[in-house]
Amino acid sequence: MIVLTRFNSERIAVNADLVARVDTSPDTRVTMIDGSRYIVTESMADVIRLIEEYKARVLALARSVPDLADRAPLELVRRAPRDSTDPDDGRPVDVTPLPAPRTK
Description:
Elements: E1 2-5, E2 11-14, E3 19-24, E4 28-32, E5 37-40, H1 44-64
Antiparallel strand pairs: 1-2, 3-4, 4-5
């Protein structure tokens, strides 16, 4: 997200990945991929710089995540043995789905 300032001094956060176009005539207009437009006080160069900095931060963060080969492998959660006659001994734990969300 990048933070921009509308002409009424309202600060808005915009998803930089959804910006389709930035143009000036004379005001700076940011057009999103869904067609919505925002007139902002920042110059075109500033908006482009903010988008570039945002994307550079995303790439730097992605590069800092450890490689999958360096991570411990995932394992199934197993039941703790209760006694030697337990038929579930060593089998994976049953997963119960979450209840559906309540709607009004």
